[in-house]
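Here is the promised in-class demo. Please do not try to memorize the tokens; focus on the logic of going from shape to residues.
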């Protein structure tokens, strides 16, 4: 019996025989690895085949042409970068799993200019001596926000960590129980606090915290009052949170700094666009927060960064913390962030030019137009049997920002039933497309929410659907 199988396995082409037939423009190591994998797959398939079917199965599985084709597929997979662009048709604008904020061309150009050569990253050109990398965005942040000082680190989680480590190590930080949030990805305020060596002093209850709760908790051990923006959830009903202004008054009367972790941290008042109010950084400063931290790539719409702004003496202490070296921002981010910040000198311009903001504020009319364009494109490409039609949807802000907001949006719904495939299978095929496309599935329909689609995405989506349809008809 085993001999019999060995005979069949011997029909598989030899590696040495395959290698010279492969295109030489791929590295030898890749060709070899792919050939080995293809042979091993064929070998496994033969071993799994029922004895009675072995002759014809081997004929097929050991076929040199099909093995060569499989090797070339494997080579393509091996040479494809792991980090790839995807199309976001989910309608979640600040999608942390999909890289949060897309950056516009002028920001990329600012990054490229710095990336391709040397720069004055840590060199003071006026003085002709060593300078500070933090100086490049500090002035513009001070100008935009009316603060004394600013520091930028790797991300907002780093900003929280270094702020607590600098100002409250071994001392108490008073936080309302209703604000001990988990952001996701295992970022929990109490855990970060424990890491920083600060001691958490919870006050109030889940739904209600009063000024007196903070007041009663203040002692000689208190280093900081902290307010955390409830980024990704909201509570309703019988609730009470202390106003930042009142907290600032209490902090001042005891000479204790007040720090607010804003999470998203926008410079733009979204209520101007008919959305829920999301606290702006300027408001927090105005109401008396001594320090505010926020993300660069959430509502700000820039590259990943954590920004700390506020009182000069406090920011300067944070700058001197040795942790700063470990959490520091890199030069490309700095270049991108500076370009984004400059754009905020004209808020209307920022809303228009930064994709995150323009997607969030897109009007229903604009979105409907985009949906019509996509729907027509699908029909023009002969995809009418996917029954494309326009439906209304609710898109989300995402990124732990304005969680209560339901953004009225439009999607093109497609129904894969006529292709004899389920919506779940269709979702998988789109996800595994050469240019992956991420969609929502609702009631056996695929929804392509146009709020998060960029103009160039429409053709990618249409072509992927056409390829899937053609494959289904084969
Ligand atoms: C998102 C968020 C963070 C973490 O910010 P990253 O930029 O993702 O590191 C911290 N605190 C709050 C309140 C957040 O919403």
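The designed amino acids, position by position:
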């Amino acid at each position: 019996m085993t001999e019999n199988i060995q005979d069949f396995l011997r029909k598989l082409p030899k590696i040495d025989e395959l290698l010279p037939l492969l295109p030489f423009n791929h590295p030898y190591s890749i060709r070899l690895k792919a050939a080995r994998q293809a042979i091993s797959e064929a070998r496994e398939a033969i071993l799994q085949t029922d004895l009675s079917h072995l002759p014809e199965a081997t004929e097929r599985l050991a076929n040199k042409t099909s093995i060569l084709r499989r090797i070339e597929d494997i080579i393509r997979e091996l040479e494809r970068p792991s980090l790839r662009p995807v199309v976001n048709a989910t309608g979640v604008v600040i999608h942390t799993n999909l890289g949060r904020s897309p950056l516009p061309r002028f920001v990329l150009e600012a990054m490229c200019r710095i990336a391709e050569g040397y720069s004055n990253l840590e060199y003071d050109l006026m003085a002709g001596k060593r300078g500070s990398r933090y100086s490049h965005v500090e002035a513009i942040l001070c100008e935009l926000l009316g603060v004394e000082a600013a520091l930028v680190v790797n991300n907002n989680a780093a900003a929280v960590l270094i702020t607590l480590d600098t100002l409250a190590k071994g001392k108490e930080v008073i936080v309302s129980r209703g604000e001990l949030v988990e952001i996701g990805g295992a970022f929990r305020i109490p855990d970060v606090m424990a890491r920083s060596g600060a001691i958490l002093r919870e006050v109030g209850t889940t739904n209600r915290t009063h000024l007196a709760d903070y007041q009663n908790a203040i002692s000689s051990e208190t280093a900081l009052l902290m307010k955390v923006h409830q980024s990704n959830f909201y509570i309703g009903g019988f609730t009470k949170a202390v106003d930042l202004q009142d907290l600032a008054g209490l902090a001042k009367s005891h000479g204790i700094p007040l720090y607010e972790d804003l999470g998203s941290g926008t410079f733009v008042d979204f209520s101007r666009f008919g959305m829920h109010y999301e606290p702006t950084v300027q408001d927090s400063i105005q109401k008396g927060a001594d320090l505010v931290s926020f993300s660069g790539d959430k509502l700000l719409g820039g590259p990943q960064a954590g920004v700390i702004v506020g009182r000069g003496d406090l920011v300067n202490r944070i700058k001197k913390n040795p942790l700063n070296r470990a959490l520091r921002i890199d030069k490309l981010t700095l270049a991108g962030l500076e370009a984004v910040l400059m754009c905020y000198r004209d808020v209307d311009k920022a809303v228009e030019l930064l994709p995150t903001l323009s997607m969030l504020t897109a009007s229903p009319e604009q979105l409907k137009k985009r949906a019509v364009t996509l729907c027509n494109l699908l029909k023009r490409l002969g995809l009418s049997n996917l029954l494309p039609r326009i439906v209304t949807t609710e898109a989300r802000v995402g990124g732990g920002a304005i969680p209560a907001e339901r953004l009225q949006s439009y999607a093109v719904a497609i129904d894969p039933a006529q292709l004899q495939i389920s919506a779940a299978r269709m979702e998988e095929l789109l996800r595994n497309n050469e240019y992956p496309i991420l969609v929502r599935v609702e009631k056996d329909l695929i929804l392509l929410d146009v709020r998060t689609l960029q103009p160039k995405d429409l053709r990618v989506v249409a072509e992927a659907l056409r390829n899937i349809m053609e494959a289904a008809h084969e």
